[in-house]
Amino acid sequence: MSTLEFTSVTQIAAAPERVWAALTEPEDIRRYWFGVAMQSDWQVGSPVKWQNSPEEEFQDLGQVVLAAEPYHRLSYSWHLLQPTHAQLFGWSEAELAEYSKEPRTKVVFDIAAEPDGSLVTVVHSGFAPDSMMYRAISGQLTGSGGWGGLMKNLKILLETGRVHAVRPDQA
């Protein structure tokens, strides 16, 4: 069975150290990731926990750090589709149950130092053909900016200090 892969490359006028912090610090993440934060000690094998809003506790969605080389590479397994996705995309419980059967995937962030900042390559892989998660992360679903939207938000935050983190469905 063949698998799908999504790649996004973004030039950011910020040092690799600042990019790493934005990928690993909960409050930085919250600023460009539509209000969501992630938390981990970023050691291989450690959980990556999600928080959908500051009022909620961090949740373990089964994500695990796969690689952590500060300022160079970060990788973790990706969560499965959640009830928040069903709300966002208007899925029924039956549709969510079916889509949640998709295999867990992984995301890799490679950070390369450049003369004027960093080149950040995101590779999200392991999607089954016809994957709904692939459609979401690639921005093909109405209401999802996918990795393109997230990386745009990250670039704006790191280059200007401003936040443009508006959910695509709210734009």
Automatic annotation (TrEMBL):
Pfam families reported for this sequence: AHSA1
InterPro entries documented for this protein: ASHA1/2-like_C, START-like_dom_sf
Gene3D superfamilies per record: 3.30.530.20
Domain of life: Bacteria
Domain Activator of Hsp90 ATPase homologue 1/2-like C-terminal: 14-159
Protein family: Belongs to the AHA1 family.
Protein name as catalogued: Transcriptional regulator
